[in-house]
Amino acid sequence: MKGSAIGLMVAGSGLLAVTATSLTGNPAVSGKATTVANRTAPGSVPARYERLFNAWGNECDAITPSILAAQLKQESGFNPRAKSPVGAMGIAQFMPGTWQNSGFDGNGDGKKDVWDPEDAIPSAAKYMCSVSRSVKDVPGDKTRLALAGYNAGPGAVQKYRGIPPYKETENYVSTIMASAAKMVQTVGGQSSVTIEAVNYASAQIGKNYVWGGNGDADGGFDCSGLTKAAFAQAGVTLPRVASAQYTHLDDDGSLVEKSDLRIGDLVFFSKKKQTGKATAADIDHVGIYLGRGHFLNAPRTGAKVRIEKIWWDTYMGAGRVYPKTKSKEA
């Protein structure tokens, strides 16, 4: 990715889609929207495993290299000889029965060895994808559901129609999501939080606007539900409504000038701005800036999540989301 930056390309639908490409060239034409490249950041995983995580972390859309790496860090601390008191084995902590059924000969040497990361890491990726497929009808974020299924079993996810209310499983999911956000390679100067959030939000293009929607049971989003869910994917918690998100960033000293807008910034709007009398309390809409005067938006009832030009006539301001609360002194 050296020398590249986050840019935009024209998808076959006529919408713009986020991609890692040169900003100086003409936008490429593609029939399918793609997202910012997702690789583990140099130094975030042991060098001897970096190739495996980056190769197998794209096995399906429920995982990424950083998710897979964060998961195995949580499971074994990247120790290929780890063995738990209950018998889980290797870097991915497979139980013997699960390995027997799901182990994979990743290096093609004719055997599947739970103690060999060349086999265990690909097997973990494939097993996560298998878990994701088994819970595909359960509403919610597919990555979090797959992690929950890996920890508690797919049956528990199906039973509770979401992440099971087990403290261990809830902690497992939140810990891995937060850890993964710190492992994503920075692209074009964008933070790992930005990349994770933009990747997630752009994957929701085409979903229905649903008032009060968070992408859970209803499967759709309203404007602030989308931004909240996108940054939750990156391990950052935002308030639920647009005006509260603006106030939160203002309190953190994280508002940015229009001239300093970057991809991933939250952009805020108010219908009252057309009269010139709007205040922060009047903010009624939010989206995610994608560069070149466009933003990713869940606009209104009857519409779908999409990318469109910034509504400059009702634009109220923007803010930048950081991995942790940013003090005014920072």
What does this structure look like?
With 330 residues, this protein is of the alpha+beta class. It folds into 2 domains: 47-181, Lysozyme (Orthogonal Bundle); 192-319, Alpha-Beta Complex (endopeptidase fold (from Nostoc punctiforme)), CATH 3.90.1720.10. Helices cover 34% and strands 12% of the residues. It contains 10 helices and 9 strands. The protein has helices at 47-56, 65-76, 96-102, 117-134, 142-152, 154-160, 167-181, 192-202, 223-233, 242-251; strands spanning 5-11, 16-21, 29-30, 255-256, 266-269, 285-291, 294-297, 306-309, 315-319. The strands form 2 sheets. The chain has a 6-stranded antiparallel sheet with strand order 4-9-5-6-7-8. Strands 2-1-3 form a 3-stranded mixed sheet. The longest helix has 18 residues, at 117-134. The chain is elongated. Residues 1-37 and 325-330 have low confidence and may be disordered.
CATH class call of the largest domain: Mainly Alpha
Radius of gyration: 21 Å
Largest sheet strand order: 4-9-5-6-7-8
**What is the helix tally?**
10
- Strand proportion, as a percent range, falls in 5-15%
- Measured as a percent range, the helix fraction is 25-40%
CATH architecture of the largest domain: Orthogonal Bundle
Q: Structural class given helices, strands, pairing?
A: alpha+beta
| Spans of at least 5 consecutive residues with low confidence | 1-37, 325-330
Helix and strand succession?
A: EEEHHHHHHHHHHEEEEEE
